[in-house]
Input
Amino acid sequence: MRPMRTDPPPAAGTTPTDAVVDLSAILDAAARIVPYAQITPVLRADALDDLAGCELHFKCENFQRIGAFKFRGACNAVFALDDATAACGVVTQSSGNHGAALALAARLRGIGAQVVVPENAAKVKRAAIASYGARIVDCAPTMAARDAATAALIARTGAELVHPFADPRVIAGQGTVALELLRQCDSIDALIAPVGGGGLLSGCAIATRALSPRTTLWGAEPEQAADAHDSLRANRLLDDRVPDTICDGLRGHLAPITFAILRERIDGIMLAGETQIVAAMRLLWQHLKIVVEPSSAVTLAALLAAREHFAGQRVGVVLSGGNVDLDALPWPP
Output
């Protein structure tokens, strides 16, 4: 589980990450979204510290607007648009949280939004997208289908693409999670965040490396959607898999931009099985008294599965969202 950094330069087709987004961009994003985004709390639970063998500081993005960190990146992207571009509206692809975030950000700015949604998206997330006024365009539950439908919308409408993670504006907005956490908690020894497409972890990695370089940085990923873990180990982007995990928010794969950022900055990615993720989700509900979704619980699950790496440390744990379909809970009543 130790560092996956490698000596060779980024793979062909990637972009030099320092030219794409840096601490300055994250600070600009923080200033841009401050009228709209919530400052989310950091919660503690002695029982979870005892289980983990370390001091856990949970950054609760389930209390963010739309119930997930995604609002930060979407809000930054929408309000960074010039007026002429914004007038054409925005479009994205999303299994739920980013789509809802973009829909709300667009509504706040008074522009249109269209969201390509896979047919297997959670009902609660689909309903949220619609409730904020976006037009939903259905597609098959594959990345290829999502990409094709999104491209067709852009060609037909001229709307601005705000990708869920392969967008510097979104990455900068997501980086405000770590910026805020580091202001709320001094001397964090390690930080762990979920990784799907890698926008959250990339933004957190950039902010943390700049502000707290001694802090180790870890991603958490489901074993059944381990493309980011395997990409970093193989030192090449693997983007042709069909994941099968309860963590619907982590089914996306890395993009060239997030792959480049993560391979340069993080210490590794830890994995958790489906049963471990459900157990961690229940622990968070039980001890923090908050609702989190499986994609959030993967951080605690992965940490508990590799607790020896964090013994005695102060660890920042990002809980990415809380949009759970209450009619499809993963445990019996």
